[in-house]
Prior knowledge:
Blueprint: E1 6-7, H1 15-23, E2 47-52, E3 60-65, E4 71-76, H2 92-106, E5 120-124, E6 134-138, E7 143-144, H3 155-174, H4 177-182, H5 195-200, H6 203-219, H7 228-238, E8 248-249, E9 258-261, E10 266-270, E11 277-278, H8 282-288, H9 296-303, H10 313-327, H11 341-369, H12 384-404
Antiparallel strand pairs: 1-2, 2-3, 3-4, 4-6, 5-6, 7-9, 8-11, 9-10
Helix pairs in contact: 6-11, 7-11, 8-11, 11-12
Amino acid sequence: MSAPELTEVRHPIDKQNLTDYLKNVTPQSTGTTLGVRVPDFSKLESLDIKQFKFGQSNPTYLLTDEDTGREYVLRKKPSPNKKIISKSAHAVEREFFMLRSIGLLNEDPQSKGKVPIPNVYLLCEDESIIGYVFYVMEYIKGVSIKDPGMPGIPEEDRKLYWNSIIDTISSIHLLDAEKLISNLPPAHYPQFQNLEKLKSSTYFQRQIRTLNSIANLQTKQVKPIPDFDKICDWLLKTAPRDPTKLTLIHGDCKIDNFLFDPTTKTVKGVLDWELCTIGHPLFDWANFLQPFNLPNALNTFLLKQTDTGKENPASLDLIYSVLGRYSEKITWDSNDPSNNPSDLWLVGFVFGLLRLCVISQGIAMRVKQGSASSSSAAGPAKLYPILSNLALEGIEQFEEQRSSGSKRIKSNL
């Protein structure tokens, strides 16, 4: 457990241009929309800039006003717009607007839950400033937990962390999605403008179409994902329909996107909303709990530890304990009791692996292009054949459980 790690800047940005731009920002400036509260940058003279170590997709920086010590976070695209292959990738603009819309719902007294997020301050779509689209937001001082198994953390503290995680993800899924959509600019969210059309397809159908499109583009530059079509076909036949109410999902829900208060053991901020969408909450949980069903050796490579993984019986117990407690808070479809996280866990797990295959292939493409934003991108770039094989194993495991009619008994967290 530690504060997010910082390095010297690996992907340079024009510090002077950025400083000059920020000094002239006001609430009326282009980009500071939706009533965001803009800090007073008018006396800014000198910035210290460090880059966060995390981030395979969008480079992220800590900006420090060297005179006042005030800190901010800047997120930018890895390339100018004209060099980005897919319009749906690296969409920091949509992330900015989504965070602001969630912030508005947090301020609504009728909202069922409040989601801890950083305040966003400004969006700059003028690439002449630093060469990329970027936005600036609040810096939340919390600690990051890299390994969801929480090694070294006392059992009582782990329970507190998990209870807060469950409450936070529940709050995301309980947000009024239609009200949230009404606060989003149509130009950046055309897919949400026809709600009836949105309801006519399922999250998994839409996502597989998108993943197919991205994978096909990436395959022009790197090797294809093994058995990609077979996994897609199985998911289209097996994945559930969406909940009866439109539901916001984070889309990249994993423990290192959560910042924690080390004193209260609660979630202080949820980060990295680039991939959030209206969808099926099964995927958020499948993504968050994914390490508990991966081989220990793969977790050792990804998380630098050995005791979280499917070889450890406690890992499976934790999966169903967490999903059981979440199900006490939310029912996805009152007319279809089979549409629940415990019964569908493996379907979500397979989909998560498929998506991770596409991400890994994308990292491989950026490594080849020389634009990967992480200093350690070469390792993840080699994973997608391994992940594809794990997805096939997950399919086999689900089909065996379904044919035998076996169900996992939910235990208490």
